[in-house]
Structure formats: C-alpha cells, structure tokens
Design a protein that fits this description.
The complex is a heterodimer of chains A (about 110) and B (about 120). Chain A has about 110 residues and is mainly β. Helices cover about 0% and strands about 55% of the residues of chain A. Classes of the chains: A mainly beta (about 110), B mainly beta (about 120).
C-alpha cells in the first residue's frame, strides 16, 4: 500500500538548536517528494521538493531534506532554528502514475526561547 | 499573480443551512483540489479537477457535499444541509502539470463553523 508517515506529531526544540522532522513513505513505484509548511492561521506553502537529480534539496530559509531511496525517507533538517520557524510541517508524496499529493499527518514544530 | 483566492475566509452558519465555498485558482493552472483540515483527521483530499472535469471525488464524505468547476477560473464546494461535524478549514489548491511539475499552491482557506 502507498502511504506517508510522519513519525512525530510534535517536536519541541530550543531556539538555535538543530532539528530533524522525519518522513517515511511506502511505495513500490517512483515518487516525487515535498515538504510544506503551515504557519498559524494560514494555508500551506511549499518549502522544498525532490523530483529528480541531487538527492539533497534546500530551501531559501535554511531547511534541507535528503531523499534516501533505500530507507524510503525524506527527512527535513535545519542546523539552527528560529522562533519564526514555529509552524506545522507536512511531508507529501506523489506516487508515480498518480496525480494527487498524499500528505503525512503533520509535525508541529515548537521553538522555545 | 494574486495566488489562489478563497472566499469567504470565515463562515459561521447554523446546522441545516446551505454553505457555499468559493475558489479562484491561479491563472493557467489545469488542476484544482479541495481539501478539508481538522484536528482529528488532519488534511483530507475531498475532490480534484483536471481541466474543469472532476477526476476523483472519492474523498467527498457524503452526498451532502458537492463540488463544481464551471470554468477554468472558478470552483465551488457546497454543503447542503450543513452539520456541526462539517466544521473545519477548507482549502483550495491549484497546480500546473506542464514540465513535470507536481507542486500545489494553496489558498488561505475558509474556516467553517456550523453551530
């Protein structure tokens, strides 16, 4: 079965600490991978994506994610978080042959000063 | 471009009333998606359209829900009659599949409260 799992529903970290938000998927076909961010009371915004090529992709605000095919993972990382990174983060997958995004359950990132 | 536009941003209605949510996708986009977000169920895909044609409505919870896309620049999601369990944030998103792009652009959402 094709599915997307975000292993942590909530991740609290201190400001300037590193963070990793985990995402795993289950699929027998090729995938396209995305991370979306949702700030309080807003819609979802694309943070970064992997379609092909380099397995390490980066966003403009310091986040990065690495596609690991053998582990079927696409974990999101940031070496030093800021208060402004407080948001909910969604991993999403398009399975080859499909047209729709399948979203994980979301991870709420809380930054403590 | 102004992005995906949704209206109203907030809707409060009484049980049994008809509710219509509206969406204007980004110009030139050929896919349109309707989602519902709740604390209990997370983000759920309700229905999506390609070139104004409904492709997959398997996520529509029941017959009280209907969606239309009369043209490339407008879509509606209607709930009739509404129930308290329909209270949620409803998002519209659009995308353009040219050049192998799969990313979706989301609107700000409509927060629906049914009392």
């Amino acid at each position: 079965a094709q599915s997307v799992t975000q292993l942590d529903s909530q991740v609290p970290v201190f400001e300037e600490a590193p963070v990793e938000l985990r995402c795993n998927y289950s699929s027998s076909v090729s995938v396209y991978l995305f991370w979306y961010v949702q700030y309080p009371n807003q819609g979802l915004q694309l943070l970064l994506k992997y379609l092909s090529g380099s397995t390490l992709v980066k966003s403009i605000n310091g986040f990065e994610a690495e596609f690991n095919k053998s582990q079927t993972s696409f974990h999101l990382r940031k070496p030093s978080v800021h208060i402004s990174d407080t948001a909910e983060y969604f991993c999403a997958v398009v399975f080859q042959g499909a047209q729709k995004l399948v979203f994980g359950q979301g991870t709420r990132l809380t930054i403590n000063p | 471009d102004a992005g995906v536009i949704q209206s109203p941003r907030h809707e409060v209605t009484e049980m049994g009333q008809e509710v219509t949510l509206r969406c204007k996708p980004i110009s030139g986009h050929d896919y349109l998606f309707w989602y519902r977000q709740t604390m209990m169920r997370g983000l759920e895909l309700l229905i999506y359209f390609n070139n104004n044609v409904p492709i997959d409505d398997s996520g529509m919870p029941e017959d009280r829900f209907s969606a239309k896309m009369p043209n490339a620049s407008f879509s509606t999601l209607k709930i009739q009659p509404s129930e308290p369990r329909d209270s949620a944030v409803y998002f519209c998103a659009s995308s353009f599949r040219g050049r192998g792009s799969y990313e979706q652009y989301f609107g700000p959402g409509t927060r629906l409260t049914v009392t």
